[in-house]
Amino acid sequence: MMTESLKQVVAEIEQLPADEQDVFAETLRLELEAREWNAIIAKPGSQRFLDHLVAEARRADAAGKTKESGDSW
Fold it and tell me: Looking at the domain assignment, is residue 48 inside a domain?
């Protein structure tokens, strides 16, 4: 069930060319994925698990078991 506000926005988006509609669709998809990710990491055990992964990565790096990926975040 959509709110009237969302229905109005969707009606406006439907008037756009397909490539512009795809841009809106991708933006909304990314927003929904971010909400899912935020819900996952907000769970009590998630922070401990993430802290464990960070500590493990730092140990591996200190031991020289990592290499630069070339990716810039």
Answer: yes
Residue 67 lies in a domain: no
Containing structural domain, residue 26:
16-62
Which residues of the chain have a pLDDT value below 70?
Answer: 71-73
pTM, two decimal places = 0.58
The residue whose two tokens read 């756009």 is 16
Residues in contact with 68: Cβ distance below 8 Å, sequence separation at least 6, in sequence order? none
Domain count, the chain: 1
C-alpha–C-alpha distance, residues 44 and 40, integer Å: 9
**C-beta separation of 57 from 66 below 8 A:** yes
